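Whiteboard transcription, Tuesday session. T.W. wrote the structure tokens on the left side:
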């Protein structure tokens, strides 16, 4: 006989799904529901969460400010790897899930809760990300995923359930797309965005202006790096969360960071997603810029060859896996000399590196110059070329016509 569950900690956002879930869990399990909301940069969205969760049936509500931890311990390590999934997605949703799950498990231990729950659907990636983290951090916790068990099989059904039970929700049947926001990005998917041919409406975006409406004058920024992490903008040192907020404002004002993609979900289907990542887009470009003069060629090549593997680990929910932890150590070691300053030009949706400098630079102008310089004998190149051409000559002589 399965042990009675007395308390469940729900990862609560105040949106349609989790608002319905509080009521559903109470009906199904007849137990205390503890609502937990992670403040990782949602802004005003969190203001009504506490009151709404209590009115909907939660016994207690935890709202934890995790913004600095989110950027310092999750976003920045990912940016040190220059991670992106399938060539363009900067993993803004995926990187938030392991932190939410970590804090949820901590609260479950504090409350003596036997179970945890989430609002991820049975078709998406988030169910995998949450539950892999839960089972790694507490293998004995009971995981309850309502979307895989209830008979509310569409967002329209959820909307009707909420209306029947007097649960206020921030979406309607006329505007059913799903939105997920944190300090790193905003994602939009589902509903009116499910047809990959239909362009997103400009009024949907919250973090950025359209490039057409961005200022006609370029913005220049200087970003300073230490050990592969950004520490200052235009000479002003900031905390990780403050720095990302600052770059979100600059990037958004200049129409930077929008993408519209069809991605391959871990569960096997393709999904259309629209994303805004203004600050992250700037940091990706700036990091590349400072690495170009401070990282050894072969170390850079090897690290870059690992980006798809590393990004896939995050996308698929393996943040706490031994392989990601091991790979992170190698990536972090590659960043020991990534110090210096990068200058960016922001203009109508584009972000261009226009300068880079570092006391640890491997760039030697005296070697690279087209003028006469010291330290390089041009006639050495003849032997270098002949040695590299040796196997090509042998192949041509043996198999060429």
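and on the right, the sequence the group agreed on:
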């Amino acid at each position: 006989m399965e042990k009675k569950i007395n308390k469940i900690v729900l990862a609560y956002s105040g949106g349609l799904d989790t608002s319905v879930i509080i009521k559903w869990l109470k009906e199904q399990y007849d137990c205390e529901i503890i609502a937990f909301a992670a403040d990782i940069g949602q802004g005003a969205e969190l203001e009504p969460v506490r009151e709404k969760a209590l009115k909907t049936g939660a016994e207690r509500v935890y709202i934890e400010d995790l913004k600095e931890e989110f950027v310092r311990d999750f976003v920045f390590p990912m940016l040190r790897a220059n991670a992106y999934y399938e060539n363009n997605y900067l993993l803004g949703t995926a990187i938030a899930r392991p932190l939410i799950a970590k804090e949820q498990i901590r609260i479950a231990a504090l409350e003596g809760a036997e179970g945890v729950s989430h609002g991820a659907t049975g078709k998406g990636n988030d169910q995998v990300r949450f539950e892999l983290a839960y089972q790694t951090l507490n293998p004995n916790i009971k995981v309850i995923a309502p979307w895989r068990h209830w008979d509310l099989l569409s967002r329209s059904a959820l909307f009707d359930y909420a209306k029947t039970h007097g649960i206020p929700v921030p979406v309607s049947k006329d505007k059913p797309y799903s939105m997920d926001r944190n300090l790193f990005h905003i994602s939009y998917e589902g509903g009116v965005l499910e047809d990959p041919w239909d362009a997103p409406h400009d009024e949907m975006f919250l973090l950025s202006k359209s490039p057409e409406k961005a200022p006609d004058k370029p913005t220049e920024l200087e970003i300073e790096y230490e050990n592969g992490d950004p520490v200052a903008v235009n000479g002003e040192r900031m905390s990780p969360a403050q720095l990302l907020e600052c770059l979100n404002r600059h990037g958004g004002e200049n129409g930077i960071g929008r993408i519209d993609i069809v991605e391959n979900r871990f569960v096997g289907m393709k999904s259309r997603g629209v994303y805004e990542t203004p600050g992250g887009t700037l940091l990706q470009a700036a990091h590349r810029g400072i690495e170009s003069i401070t990282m050894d060629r072969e170390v850079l090549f090897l690290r870059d060859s690992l980006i798809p593997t590393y990004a896939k680990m995050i996308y698929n929910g393996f943040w706490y896996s031994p392989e990601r932890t091991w790979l992170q150590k190698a990536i972090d070691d590659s960043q020991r000399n990534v110090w210096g300053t990068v200058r960016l030009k922001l203009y109508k949706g584009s972000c261009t590196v226009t300068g880079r400098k570092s006391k640890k630079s491997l760039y030697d102008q005296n070697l690279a110059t087209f003028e006469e310089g010291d330290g390089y004998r041009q006639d050495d190149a003849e032997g270098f070329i002949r040695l590299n051409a040796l196997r090509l000559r042998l192949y041509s002589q043996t198999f060429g016509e």
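Someone added at the bottom: The chain has two domains: 7-176, 185-295+337-357.
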